[in-house]
Design goal:
This protein is an alpha/beta fold and 412 residues long. The protein is 37% helix and 13% strand. The chain has a domain at 30-259: 3-Layer(aba) Sandwich (Aspartate Aminotransferase, domain 2), CATH 3.40.640. The longest helix has 32 residues, at 250-281. The two termini are 24 Å apart.
Length: 412
């Protein structure tokens, strides 16, 4: 009978779990190149005079079963415009999770409003409805739930809170392309939803964004803000409200139309691979997949996330992530600090924006005193991310992730 020598065991330990590249992102087909080339050759590059962006808006609205889709030049701009269209004004407060990309909060600041940064649910890393309820004041105007990684927020609870306090909900759906919950597309549950098409996103054109809504008036205002205050079928040099130039180019529209044809299949693959990883990683001590809502039919997994227990592995998270990377798994420790610890919230830059408000109101900007323990733990020791492109690999290739983690685990 064959036996394994010490030398063979040591050699196997040195061989990375992953022996070949993961799928590249962005995924490019010749159809994408051709779509953009046709726009370039045609010379109609502005969405003011072209049809590609308009066609994409129509197709994206239909994909999400929503009445309106308004394309803009970034996800940040989408949030900023949607908040303004829904009535957020200088001095208003907008509740934002403390675990999100900076754009969720700076979009609030760009409207002269106050981002109130609250803690997250430890099982999902999404905004905690209990923390939302505690944060409401007479100045609160809106809530921005971020479907982080593509995992649906507690929308029933948030909708109830919004109804009780007459608040609007703007979904940050930057991670959510293709995701569904209770047969609704993520981003279409609140008053408006905002998508990003930045290069890392599941549907992307390098940069870009989109607002979706069923509210005709909100859609009209969003379009006006995005195009210097113009309204559809109005006179070109006639400007009805304050706006700016947030338009998307025709090249981006063409690229997004081509990319959209693959989104359904890609989302289904990410979802299936994410389910497999959840099932298998649950069996490894010290690794806890994020809780998935039973009513979420499709999880787009912009990130595959899990919680890591340093005490079980006997390694700091940074070392665990480094070892995963050495095994060929493109893991990340995620955000290194809560949003409230970012320099922009240091207290030196915020108050001058609101000098016209009274002193008690300005005290809301003392972010140094915020204590969101779940967010802090996620940043310091728990959260581990794996990029969405990994989940486009073949189902059997997910075993490389399992193998890599088992190699690092003290229990194997």
């Amino acid at each position: 009978m064959a036996t394994t020598t010490i030398h063979e065991t040591a050699t196997n330990a040195m061989v990375p779990a992953r022996q070949k590249p993961w799928p590249r992102w962005p995924y490019v087909e010749e159809a994408d190149v051709q779509a953009v080339a046709e726009v370039v050759r045609a010379g109609t590059w502005s969405s003011n005079s072209g049809e590609e962006v308009r066609q994409f808006e129509s197709e994206f609205a239909a994909y999400n079963n929503v009445k309106h889709a308004i394309c803009v030049n970034s996800g940040n701009a989408a949030l900023q415009i949607a908040l303004a269209a829904l009535g957020v004004r200088p001095g208003d407060e907008v509740i934002v999770p403390d675990y999100t990309y900076i754009a969720t909060a700076t979009a609030v600041l760009m409207n002269g409003a106050i981002p109130v940064l609250v803690d997250i649910d430890p099982q999902t890393y999404n905004i905690d409805p209990v923390a939302v309820r505690r944060a409401i004041t007479p100045r609160t105007r809106a809530i921005i739930p971020v479907h982080f990684s593509g995992s649906v927020c507690a929308m029933d609870e948030l909708a109830q809170i919004a109804d009780e306090h007459h608040l609007v909900i703007v979904e940050d759906a930057a991670h959510s392309h293709g995701g569904t919950w209770k047969m609704k597309a993520l981003g279409t549950i609140g008053d408006a939803g905002c998508f990003s098409f930045q290069a890392s996103k599941n549907l992307n054109s390098g940069e870009g964004g989109c607002i979706v809504t069923d509210n005709d008036d909100v859609a009209l205002i969003c379009r006006a803000i995005a195009s210097n205050g113009r309204v559809p079928r109005g006179i070109w040099y006639e400007h009805f409200i304050n706006g700016s130039t947030f338009r998307m180019t025709e090249m981006q529209g063409a690229l997004l139309r081509s990319q959209l044809t693959r989104l359904r299949e890609q989302t289904a693959r990410r979802d299936a691979n994410g389910r497999f990883l959840n099932e298998q990683l649950t069996k490894i001590a010290g690794i806890t997949p994020m809780l998935r809502d039973l009513d979420q039919e499709l999880h787009p997994h912009h990130l595959y996330m899990f919680r890591y227990d340093e005490s079980t592995f006997g390694l700091p998270k940074s070392t665990f992530v480094e070892r995963l990377q050495a095994e060929g798994i493109p893991a990340s420790p995620g955000y290194g600090m809560p949003l409230h610890a970012q320099p922009v919230f240091s207290g030196e830059n915020i108050p001058p924006l609101f000098a016209s408000h009274n002193a008690p109101h300005r005290d809301a900007f003392n972010y140094r005193n915020i204590d969101n323990p779940v967010v802090q733990k996620a940043c310091d020791s728990e959260a581990v991310w794996i990029t969405q492109a990994v989940l486009l690999a073949e189902p059997e290739e997910m075993n490389d992730i399992i193998t890599a983690i088992r190699k690092i685990s003290p229990t194997g």
